[in-house]
Amino acid sequence: MRFHPLAPLTVVALLAQGCGSGQTGTVVPALTRPDSVAFACFELCDPDEEEDCVETDDGPPPDRVLDLGGCAPDDEGDFSLNPSMHALVVQSSTGEVGAIQIDGPEFGVRDTDARIPGFTFVPTGEAPSTVVTPRSFPRARCTYVANRGSNNLTVIPTDGFRASLGTDSSLTGESLAGARPTDLVLSPDESSLWVTLPLFGAVAQLDLAEPVGTGPEGEVTVEDCLAAVSPIAIVPLLGETPDPVDLRDVPTDELPPDVQVVCPRDTTLIDPPLVPPRTPVSRGTLPSPWGFAVDEQRGVLFVSDTALPIIHVIDIASETELEPLNVQVPTRQLALTPALPATAGDPSDRSERYLYAVDDLDSTVLVVDVTDPDRGSYGAVLPIDVRQSRALDRIPFPVATRDIEIVTPGYTENASNCVPDEVDQLEDIGPEFLRGVFLAAAGLDGLIRFVDILDLDASCRGDETCAPPGNPEDQLVFIRRHRVRIGTQLLDTLVSVRDGPQWSLSNGFSAQVDLDGTTPDLAGFAPDLLPVECPPDQGRLFPSSGSPILCTVTDPWGAEADFVSIRYEGPIPFTIGSGGLFLDGGQRIQVRFDPCSVGVLGAQNLLEQPEDSPLTAYGGAAVVLTSTASSLDPEVEESCREEFPTVGIDGGTVLTIPLLEARSGSSEGGYLGELVLGDPPGTSLARVAECFGDRLELEVRVEDAFRVLSAEESMLHRVTAGPDGSCRIDPEANPRLRARAFFDDRFESATTTFSLGPAPGSLLDPILSYGIDDEPPFIGFSLGPPNLGTGENVPSLAVTVTYNPVDERLYGVDQASRGLVVIELSPLRISTETVRGRGSNLPKIFR
Amino acid sequence: MTGHAAQRVGALGGTPGRRSLVGCARLLGGVAARGGCVNPGAAPPDGELNFPLDLTLGPRDLEGSADTLFVVNSNFNLRYNTATLLALDLDEIHREIDDCEAEGLLDDNTCVLAPLPGDLAESPALLDEVGISTLTDGLALGSPAANGAPSATRIYLAARADQNLNFVDFTGQAFSCDQELPTQSSAVIPICGERFRTTDVSPRDTELMGDPVDVLTAPLRSLGVDREGDAIVLTLREGSLALFVDDGGPEDRPRLLSTVDVGVDDLVTSTLEPDTGLVWVASADSSALIQVGVFLDPLDLDLSFLSLEGTVDLRDAGADDGDDTRQILFEPDSTRLWALNRRPEAVFGLDQGVPPPQFGGVTLYKVFEVALGPSRMAIGTLGGRDYLFVTSFQAQRLFVIDLDLGDLVAVVGGLSGPFGVLVDEARQYVYLTDFASSVIRFIDVAPLTETRTPVRRARLGPIQTVQFLGNN
User: Fold this and answer.
1) What is the ipTM of this complex?
2) A733 inside 8 A of chain B by CB
3) Are A93 and B305 a contacting pair at CB < 8 A?
4) Which of A36, A520, B20, B350 is 20 to 30 A from residue A226's alpha carbon, by CA?
5) Do A669 and B356 touch (CB under 8 A)?
6) Cα A761 from chain centroid?
7) How far apart are CA A718 and CA B130, in angstroms?
8) Is 0.90 surpassed by the pTM of this model?
9) pLDDT per 10-residue tile (average), chain A, 847 residues
């Protein structure tokens, strides 16, 4: 699934507006390597409104932290200017936490010591990782930071973030020496603080009393914050690994419900297959706890582990570890949903809970059912993707994920579904308006993508077949729990063919395939495409009516823009232009690529095939020498070029040699593979080695077959190395991972299906090609600069995304360029300054 | 200083005037555009650090300990008429650092070795010094001789002004490169002779064209050739790699065998992937990590060549946009590699041992943000844990990442312009070239083994101020 240029039009337009205002140049670069974000609400001392709010000899008038709820927007949704929301941002490079005032006339990065040039922030320990501030007053008066570098915690009187003559902070937690504390989380009632200690294989717990201010005006000092913290209790983690849940063994009525809203209703959706759990992967034998998620309802903590394939579960009240969840891989960031309805119907019937986790092996995102420990699917990693060429148990983001967060705009205790008759503005409902529960995932590319979990507006979306009267800009609607949120769908088909299908020949001629699968303009040179019955998980691609001759995946979350190239005797990717070294007088070639991993099969590799193999008619590949005959001996070179006059010269002919066997690895020299050659036509291998041994360049081609290549998937195959290194077809792999098509044969792969007719009378390396277009666009939001019209591409690097449930905004950190970006969720856009009467419209971006 | 003085006496003689002209002609061909040879410039004083760029440890004993540190002094500002290669006695340096500690001088503001100009020349820490090609950018050690004698060490240099592969032999205490004093009366540092600044003619008449910026070596045996000697790969900025073999031929110098155009320019560094014979190349102008295969013919080394094998693109993992990679490193005993990038400023960890989520894609293991001007990195094992050390030049910091933990654990500040970085695992120290202030920093990383923060323990040389540089 790709970012569609039309889909987040609104978002892009707003970004352009923000940038075009010329105001982004006023952003002050102050943050250095920003990371974790917490929030605090401050009552700002306003001399215009308070008589005693005057500067004294001790400094400016004080501002006071409040309960975070004090900064909630008003009934009209306008953000509070005073009290004012502040973001507290860890500066991991300098060992500081910086405060940023989000709303109000003086919004921006706070300098906590005006006496020092530049920006001074509140000091922490070394390499701080996480900051938390309690939401409730008076506990909100102290802020806590985990310092993985100095192995301790920092306590900061929160009022100090508004100081202008310096702020004290203090280190505590001497017993954490050697633990590398990484994450912090507060218990639901904020009476305790939990810390992950990866090098201890444990978590720590501290009781937090309500701080008592002993300062001159009753303000809380750093000593007061220290006094409110209890000694640290270490809770060791056991690291026991239960068997993973196999969903195939779970009764159907105990599987998580599938929640979907789709318009038109007859859209064919593919249910992902229930696949067996992966073989668990461990990085060690001891736990290495990393991140937290709090289940307020059950009173448990979920703790990810970067060493073991489990997520720990800790009962907060008893401080004991419960049976962990086996998720089969080490994990990193966690995000837990609130209780959710089991259907898209009544949002008050809330029973379901899901835990999202970032796989620490490959930065993908998985979903775990944590609804009810008594349900059969509790702890199972759910199947999500429908593309059999991908990991089926992952959310199909196109890039690696850096951070995840649950956002819940409008999902209050009394939240209700949208009622069409009560909607004033249908334009305020659509994919870019988030109301409900969603997963926000920050991608490595700087894009924040959203995953549908519960869209409270779904009942008002779609055309008249789903929710009359319908928003004309929101006719096709595809919502499914745990699937990437799809954007505005303006087109009437999910997928369509582009640039073809057409046949091309090596002589330069090409022609479109007719609707009946024939290509009259290339009769005798291109095979016919025969009508096929599309498999259940694919739909028609071409033609748009009549008997289909090309099929592809049409599920909204499985469809993928692509370009498919089906080439007779085409080269296998990753072998093209490779070097080689002859051995044994030319009998073997050592290569620096692994032939099995790229899908090479020689004749002898095909002797033992699985019964279901579609390759029974395949004779194996050929090694094609593309370099020019040469030798350091001029006489030898002259004779070679007489014998092979045109090979490799100016793209001329090639020398084709049958491939007997392909193997992974080689005996010495670190070569990744070997190719065992058969007899070349009209000469000997020894002579070939003599003439081409100097700077041998080669490629491997499929012989008397078509190589099926996808721009998105490359060449899908199921070749693997056997125990002896010899390449073979993996009997355990999905048989639909096919790479080769044949004349007079139906080709069905995980992504496309077609049937080729008999071989034509003349073969001029025919290539069948076609594009697949119009995949559904997803909703995305770029943290990075929009790069519209500037000509300068500034990179972005998403670090964290943090949701603020009080102002219902999302705070993204982009380290590469923008710093902290404040994002409103309904509609999705960069937050703008709301100082009424000033005409200001500044985007909320802080560096 | 005995060894140093003895070496200098031994280098006198020959016909220095002629050699000087040869050197100047080479400079004219190499960096005339930089103005480096319009005026032959002043001879460098003895024992002065002038924009040190790269460094490497000398031969290691069976326990992995080295007693020599080689430093390339790039003469980046062309202040002098030659760059220099320094051999420093690590035992002596660490003795002095220990002395500092005994005196309570615990950081590099107070523990300054050779604090004044000229001090290093008189210090026993300086084993030897020779003049090499100006703007030499990288160095690499050849493999020890068959008898394992450290006296057989050969140091290969990416010599930008010479536009060639240079080399210097090190015989335990002193350099040996046919060095002689130039004719200038003020010259005190001998300059390597012609044989060490040229290579044997290619059997294929291959020409070396370009600006050498990095060099790597691999024993021939590791690449399937049962013979003593080394394969040397020189990285040329304009977009090509050159393969040399040094196997003790008639002239006892490397011979050029092959070059390959990698299709991308602004190359920066190259790294040999262990056990694969693949050289990975970093480019400042591309998000692609380029793979070049080394093919050594065991029967006839002259038939050996380089071949472009493929690329791994950081954009395939989602990098935005990844278009400036400075270095690639392979984690020991792991399937992971690390690519240091400036767009964005981060280290990308790719895992070749984990199947990519998408067929034919790239498995991104982790990304570690660093800061402005990421320049070089090094991996070291300390106390059983693997650490990645990353210099950020403009940010003036050294980032320390615990690869086993998977996160940043320390940031070392107080640096002027850290560039080259090297881990001495045996002594549990990191050595830095602080390019902007022309000093070598010695950072005690033993505290990491107790999860404490590294300490800038000492520096070598007087800090060259910006004003000083600006006047030159």
Assistant:
1) 0.92
2) no
3) no
4) A36
5) no
6) 48
7) 58
8) yes
9) 34 32 39 92 82 66 89 90 93 94 85 85 96 97 97 96 87 92 97 97 97 87 96 93 97 94 83 94 95 96 98 96 97 97 86 97 97 97 88 92 97 90 81 95 93 93 66 81 84 75 95 96 96 92 93 89 94 94 94 95 91 82 94 93 86 90 89 96 95 93 95 87 95 87 93 95 95 83 65 79 97 88 91 44 59
